[in-house]
Amino acid sequence: MIHLRRIHPLNLPGLPKADSTLLTVITEGASGRQLYQFRVAYGSGNPQYSTVEIRSNPSSTVNLSHVERGLRVAIVR
């Protein structure tokens, strides 16, 4: 399960402003350790959801395209 929480921007001298951040997810399973990185853009207003759960079906293979498709569906909804 991945829980994202919006925080107030930090104003640190010498660091440029950014309109996105990077989410890194590391998983470990039968095929070993996997690293996934997602660019997360800052939004405005209140989100309609706060938690995204990514679960695999043991009888099928899950790859990055499945995660991307799920995120697109979540954004549309």
Quick description:
The protein has 1 helix and 4 strands, in the order ββββα. The protein is an alpha+beta fold and 77 residues long.
Structure description:
The structure is a single chain. With 77 residues, this protein is an alpha+beta fold. The chain has 1 helix and 4 strands, in the order ββββα. The radius of gyration is 15 Å and the shape is globular. The mean pLDDT is 79.
The number of helices is 1
Low-confidence stretches: none
Rg, Å, rounded = 15 Å
Largest sheet: 2 strands, antiparallel
Mean pLDDT over the full residue set: 79
Could you give the order of the helices and strands? EEEEH
Portion of residues in helices? Answer: 10-25%
Structural class: alpha+beta
Tertiary shape: globular
Counted beta strands: 4
Q: Tell me the span between the first and last alpha carbons.
A: 19 Å
Strand fraction: 25-35%
User: For the largest beta sheet, what order do the strands appear in spatially?
Assistant: 1-4
